[in-house]
Amino acid sequence: MEGEILKGHLDMIVLAALAAGPAHGYAIIQEIRRRSGGAFDLPEGTIYPALHRLEKAGLLSSRWTSGDSGRKRRVYSLTRRGSRALVEQRAVWDRFADAIRGLLSGTGHVPA
Amino acid sequence: MSRPDPIDAYLDKLARELAFDPALARRVCLEVHDHLREAVDAGPGEAPPDAARRAIVRFGHAREIAAPYRALAICTRMRRAGAIVVLGVAAIFLAMEGRVVWYGLVQWPVSRELQALGAILLPVDRYAFLAAAVLAIAAWLRSLRLPSPADHRSMPRAPVRRCQYLFAGATIAAAVAVAIELCLTGLRLLETGLSSSALLPAASVLLELGLVAGVAVYLRNTRHRLDQQFGVAT
To answer: Residue A101, exposed/middle/buried by CB under 10 A (0-12, 13-18, 19+)?
Structure first.
C-alpha cells in the first residue's frame, strides 16, 4: 500500500495495534503486519517517532523492561485517553470508509 | 582490521542525527538497538552482517527517522520558551508588587526630588511592563498554535521566527521596566542609607535582574538550538 497514505493514518494504526495489550516497537510492527495481512509494510523505523509523539500527547505510556535477551526494551501501552482517541478515530474512519464505498460503488452512502 | 558492526555504525549515525537532544538520542538508540537485534534474531538464518544490513534497510535511513523527532523537538522547545517568558514576566511582576507593598508597610520616606523623577519614569516603567506582559502572552499563545508537522523539513520557519521576535520583544520590554526599577530603588536606598528594611527591596530588584538575564540567556540558547535543528535539514 502507498507509504504516504499509510503515514497519514499511522497514529490510528499504532493505537489499534496496541489495543490488544502492551507491546514494544518490534512487536507493534509485527502486529500491524499480521493484522493487515502484510499490506501495511512501512519502513519499520517510522513507528518510533509516532510512538514518541503519541506518548507526548498522552495517548500512550511507556516503561523500560528487560527482554528475554537481556536487552533493555521499551514497552508501550494505551492510556485511557489513548483508548478514547482510538474509539473516536475508528468511528470517523468507519464513516469515511462507508462514504467512499458508497461513492465508488455508485449506490450512494446510507447513513447508519 | 575488522569492519564495524553495521548495527553499531547505524546507531552512531542515528545518535548524530539526534544530537540536538542527548537524552532523546540515548533513549531512541536503545530502542532501535533492541529492534534491530531482534530483527536479526528473527531473520531467515543469514550470516549476521547480512541480516543486520537487511534489518537496517527495512528500518529506514537514520536522517528520515530523526526528522519527525526534530519537528517535535522544535515545537516542544518553542512552547517551553513561551511558558518560561510568561513565568519570568509574572515573577518580575510579583517582585515589583512585593516591593511596593513593603514600601507601604515600612512607611518608606521618599524625597521630593525622587518623587519628581518617579513621576517621569514610573509611567515609562508601567507601559514597558504592560508591553512585556502583552508580548509574552501573545508569544506563548502563538507558540501553542505552531504547526507540528511530521517532518521538520516541512515546518514553516516564518511562524517560529515571529514567535522568537515576540519573545525578544517581551524580554526587552521587561528589561526596560527592570532597569527603571533598579534606578529608582537604587536612589531610594541611597537616600535612606542601608538598613535591615532595605534588604527586601534590594533583594527583590536583584531577583528581577536575575530573572530578566535568565530569560534572555534561555532565549539565546533556544535560538541557538533551533538554528541547529533547522540547519541540519538545509
So the answer is: exposed
Contact B80/A at CB under 8 A: no
Q: Report the relative pairing of strands A23-24 and A72-78 from DSSP bridges.
A: antiparallel
CATH number of the domain within which A40 lies: 1.10.10.10
- What is the span of the domain harbouring residue A19? 3-78
Report the residue from A44, A49, A50 with minimal CB separation from B35.
A44
Question: CA end-to-end span of chain A, whole Å?
Answer: 28
Residues A24-45 pLDDT 10s? 999 999 999 888 888 887 789 9
- Residue A32 forms part of a structural domain: yes
Number of structural domains in chain A = 1
Name beta bridge partners: A72.
Answer: A66
Does the model's pTM come out above 0.80? no
B174 and B134 in contact (C-beta within 8 Å)?
no
Chain A interface includes B179 (CB < 8 A): no
Q: Domain for residue A66, yes or no?
A: yes
Interface predicted TM-score of the whole assembly (ipTM), two decimals: 0.84
